[in-house]
Design goal:
Elements lengths: L1 E4 L16 H12 L1 H13 L8 E4 L4 E5 L11 H12 L5 H12 L6 H8 L2 H9 L2 H12 L5 H16 L18
Antiparallel strand pairs: 1-3, 2-3
Helix pairs in contact: 3-4, 6-8, 7-8
């Protein structure tokens, strides 16, 4: 369990005694002044159910949030946005060596675009022209999202039609969870 500062410090934090770092003072204040609150919220956090594989966040107070990271089960699939995040982090040199070793086969494997989705895009010249200008990461994320609904034909058709309509209007689909940060990356 990790306690992370999420907002700016209040004005009262400006009066930190000399010789004590801001981190030390804030951490000590959090631990000493809010032990009961932390324990109560930790118990509530545990009672809310199993956290997501990547992370689940709960607000602790106005400055901090609790975030629990759960190790991924061996062999569990990664979503395309998470693979793109890993590719970006690897390119920035921000992957821990042990994590990098574990995910290198996943991020090194080239994405295979489904032929039927690409053909559907080619049938719409304006959409295809716009699609051809998009970053590879955006294309992989969007096409994987459509392909994930393949076993639900109505949803698959809906997602494909929406994507073609957006491309025809020369518009990007903004993702969730900040995934659009990786749209312009290779």
């Amino acid at each position: 369990l990790i306690i992370m500062r999420t907002r700016k410090m209040p004005a009262s934090a400006a009066a930190i005694p000399a010789g004590i770092s801001t981190k030390t003072c804030c951490f000590r204040q959090t631990v000493e002044a809010k032990t009961r609150t932390v324990m109560r919220k930790l118990q509530a956090f545990k009672a809310t159910g199993t956290p997501a594989i990547d992370s689940t966040a709960r607000q602790l107070d106005e400055l901090h949030q609790l975030r629990r990271f759960t190790p991924r089960r061996k062999g569990s699939p990664y979503s395309r946005p998470n693979i793109e995040r890993l590719i970006w982090l690897n390119g920035q040199g921000k992957l821990h060596p042990s994590v990098r070793e574990a995910v290198l086969p996943i991020i090194s494997e080239p994405y295979r675009f489904p032929d039927d989705i690409i053909e559907a895009l080619r049938e719409h010249p304006v959409a295809w022209q716009f699609y051809s200008t998009l970053s590879p990461s955006y294309c992989r994320i969007r096409i994987a999202y459509i392909d994930a609904a393949r076993h639900r034909p109505a949803e698959f058709a809906k997602r494909l039609a929406h994507f073609i309509a957006k491309c025809s209007k020369r518009q990007l689909i903004i993702g969730y969870g900040g995934v659009d940060k990786y749209y312009n990356k290779q």
